[in-house]
Design goal:
The chain is of the alpha+beta class and 492 residues long. Helix content is 38%, strand content 14%. It has 17 helices and 13 strands. It has an eight-stranded mixed beta sheet with strand order 6-8-7-12-13-11-9-10, with helices on both faces. A three-stranded mixed beta sheet has the order 1-3-2, sandwiched between helices. The longest helix is centred in the middle third of the chain and has 27 residues. The protein is globular, with a radius of gyration of 21 Å. The mean pLDDT is 96.
């Protein structure tokens, strides 16, 4: 098959760059889709990141209603196999229980993606219902393109691998506790979790689940992420909470540097601490920001972290239990089949379906006090900077973080999860924006994301800061390195 361009040129262009070539008539959206499909063929045997390619959307980018006049003009794009749905297409949520399940309708956000000119050409892998830290089960084993002996983390596992491997410039991701930011951080991508009130999942999720779980993307450039938010945001009719839009588009905002910011650097969050190497990488990022004119100090938000993580655990258990219960009812079943649902998810269902209103009320009270504590903190500080995780990325086969784990206690399993993924979940609880930037390196050679978080609705400030950093480093995220598994060849 003749490709539209060489792989090095392809990997050097972001989504808006590809769109510009389409507008100039130098390539067509169909040629872009065929090249992305060829990229899957090159890399996916080693990565196992793609659940399905939509052959019809590859052959005819207009077949599903993609707008060729949208900002991305036919740029190929994947949906994570969780969250937004496409009418008639399968969505199986990483679960044997859901095999063959087809969506009844397009969600509002899927329509917005198509209006933005994104050609949705397939589905990427996720762990069962997006619950655990990586994709390692009987359906898929998704590997990190930097070193295939390591996991991609999750739950936006396949998206992280496809963007890092250069197959597509951006791809859909979701974040219920770090699932955009963590895999972005350990695969060398940019991953923004937006504030509440930006992306809609209508007609689904008008409840606390919709407040905690956030949609978004992975990308390789700040401007692609800014454009994705600008063109896909907004509420559908009947939203139960306000949706907001800034006065200035993010695409315009990121062209200018932010004012000098007060940046707090922190890694000691309650009972959790980062390993020394991660602290050193965090300090290095702090010095970079200081060199850009920002005030940087070691300060930890005055949050009751133990109470917050306990509330987060109650939220996850009760929310996921209801998701599983809903699928059981749809199937006409009263109990999960252990051959179709993984052990920890069965324990979540058992523990969560009996959570009382009083327990949920207590949980929401902690959500309130935690959000207020962060709100007070951001009256004095613009940004809090942390590593993306506290511990090194697990190798493939590390079962303690997986829903295939044999841990007899679901609460202990979650406690262990927080020990590693300490710095991302509370942004979901409090509705804060957070972004992972590929600025650090782990001792294993894998990327280490450095996370910046800000007050609610300061998403634009995070993007503005990220763009300032991108300019300062000449666009050379990950120190200009590429993964071992990459469309442009071994090591780049």
């Amino acid at each position: 098959m003749t490709l539209a361009m060489g792989w090095s040129e392809w990997a050097g262009l972001d989504g808006l760059g590809l769109a510009e070539l389409v507008r100039k008539g130098e390539v067509t959206a169909a040629e872009l889709a065929r090249q992305a499909a060829a990229g899957v063929a090159l890399t996916d045997p080693a990565l196992d990141a793609v659940v399905e390619l939509f052959d019809d959307a590859v052959a005819d980018p207009l077949c599903d209603g993609m707008s060729p006049d949208g900002a991305f003009a036919g740029t190929p794009f994947f949906l994570k196999d969780l969250g937004p749905t496409l009418a008639g297409r399968r969505q199986e949520m990483g679960s044997r229980m859901m095999q063959g399940h087809r969506a009844a309708h397009d969600t509002f956000l899927a329509t917005r993606m198509r209006q933005a000119g994104l050609n949705i050409i397939g589905r990427t892998t996720t762990p069962e219902f997006g619950v655990c830290s990586s994709v390692e089960n009987t359906l898929h084993l998704t590997r990190n393109p930097w070193d295939t002996g390591y996991t991609t983390c999750g739950s936006s596992a396949g998206t992280a691998a496809m963007v890092a491997a250069g197959v597509v410039p951006l791809s859909h991701a979701t974040d219920g506790g770090g699932s955009i930011r963590i895999p972005a951080g350990v695969n060398g991508n940019i991953g923004l979790k937006v504030s509440r009130g930006v992306f809609s999942l209508a007609p689904h999720a008008s409840d606390l689940t919709g407040l905690v779980s956030i949609q978004g993307c992975h990308s390789r450039t700040v401007r692609d992420t800014a454009a994705f938010v600008d063109h896909c945001r907004g509420g559908a009719p009947g939203e139960f909470m306000p949706f907001w839009t800034p006065a200035q588009s993010y695409g315009e905002l990121i062209a200018t540097d932010p004012r000098p910011l007060r940046i707090a650097v922190s890694h000691a969050w309650g009972d959790w601490r980062a390993v020394p190497h991660f602290v050193a990488e965090l300090e290095k990022a702090g010095r970079l920001l200081q060199g850009l004119g920002h005030q940087v100090e070691w300060v930890t938000p005055p949050v009751d972290f133990r109470a917050a993580f306990a509330a987060q655990t109650t939220c996850y258990i009760s929310n996921f239990a209801q998701v599983i219960e809903g699928h059981l009812q749809r199937r006409g079943e009263t109990r999960p089949d252990p051959d179709l649902l993984e052990p920890i998810n069965i324990k979540i269902w058992e523990a969560g379906r009996g959570v009382s209103f009083a327990e949920r009320a207590a949980m929401q009270a902690v959500f309130n006090t935690t959000a207020r504590a962060f709100g007070d903190f951001f009256e004095s500080w613009d940004i809090v900077l942390t590593p993306i995780t506290a511990l090194p990325t697990p190798k493939v086969g590390t079962t303690e973080y997986l829903t295939t784990s044999t841990n007899p206690s679901v609460h202990d399993w979650f406690e262990n999860l927080w020990r590693n993924f300490a710095y991302t979940p509370l942004a979901n609880l409090a509705g804060l924006p957070g972004i992972s930037l590929p600025l650090g390196t782990q001792e294993s050679g894998l990327p280490l994301g450095i996370q910046a978080q800000a007050r609610q609705a300061n998403d634009g400030l995070l993007l503005q800061l990220a763009a300032q950093v991108e300019r300062a480093i000449g666009g050379r995220w990950n120190d200009g390195r590429r993964p071992a598994v990459h469309v442009a060849g071994q090591g780049g």
